Amino acid sequence: MTPLVYPLTSDLNADMGIIPVPCFHAVSYDGNTAVLQADGSTVPFDVSALTSEELEDANRRYGRDMQVRGLVALPTRWMQDLPGVTFRPPYRKPLGVRVGGHWYYAWPLRWDPERDVGADTVVRLSS
Question: Which of 3, 10, 99, 118 is most buried, with most CB under 10 Å away?
């Protein structure tokens, strides 16, 4: 059985190369949490294309109990229109998501919506 999300059992590193990340879309959003559903497709994501700063941020642990659990791809255009969610410093506010009964914080590995409009954005899921 294919996992619901791209699972991470260790830190992301450039040696992972191109990985297939499952695509999701939001079936609901209440202003705090988006309920996500897989659409059955994947997007190729080249981990080696991330800068060293992006890799460091992708692997950062926020609190001793917080861990990166996996990756999913979300529509960039949908993420741009989220009220109250900010992915850019200094006022970063994460997106809360529910996937298969589990709740996560979602952060883009790379956030450049001007370049990626219409594309999917790969996000890490942390809990």
Answer: 99
